[in-house]
Specification:
Strand content: 5-15%
Number of domains: 1
Order of helices and strands: EHEHHHEHEHHEH
Radius of gyration: 15 Å
Strand order of the largest sheet: 2-3-1-4-5
CATH class: Alpha Beta
Shape: globular
Bound molecules: shikimate-3-phosphate
CATH architecture: 3-Layer(aba) Sandwich
Mean pLDDT: 97
């Protein structure tokens, strides 16, 4: 069975939009981890953080990553924090090729300027929070990635082209 194509990267880097398009173009099943968890729990990620706590959400993510350790040709958009756990990273790498959509704090802040669905960026000083969290996570994204695409100046079409080129498709 083909390897999964796993998209990692910071919140707002475009994992979901890119994943949907890859799924359409390659005719492969698409799973957005946040979306999957929200539907199953009948709650938004924000509500899960509020009512059950972040640790419970992270366990739900980990459980999904265990399933994705098996290559099944899926396109998977992860949540931005998935790389915080070495177990998750190992499982995702077992089942797939990992594509890191790398971006800048400025572009992320622009992409998320109207967004209020990310509990970790809620409240004041969104830009500072993005910059701090990104600095703390950059090394993890880089060490997990098989392929890195700098999407900070790319639109969706350009990003897809770069991905196909990197995957030799
Ligand atoms: C998170 C990213 C979010 C979501 C949750 C936590 C993170 O996913 O899983 O809000 O820790 O970076 P997106 O990257 O899809 O926004």
């Amino acid at each position: 069975m083909d390897k999964n194509i796993v998209l990692i990267g910071f919140m707002g880097s475009g994992k979901t939009s890119v994943g949907k398009r890859l799924s359409m173009n390659l005719k492969r099943e698409f799973i957005d981890m946040d979306d999957f968890i929200e539907k199953r729990e009948g709650m938004s990620v924000t509500e899960i953080f509020e009512k059950r706590g972040e640790a419970a959400f992270r366990e739900m993510e980990a459980e999904l990553c265990r399933r994705f350790a098996v290559p099944k040709g899926k396109i998977i958009a992860t949540g931005g924090g998935v790389i915080k756990s070495a177990e998750n990273t190992e499982n995702l790498k077992k089942g797939g090729v990992i594509i890191y959509l790398s971006s800048t704090p400025e572009r992320i802040a622009y992409n998320l300027r109207f967004d209020n669905t990310r509990p970790l960026l809620a409240g004041d000083n969104k830009e500072e929070k993005i910059a701090e969290l990104m600095a703390a996570r950059e090394g993890l994204y880089n060490s997990c990635a098989d392929i890195t695409i700098d999407v900070s100046e790319l639109n969706l079409e350009e990003t897809l082209k770069e991905i196909y080129r990197a995957l030799d498709m």
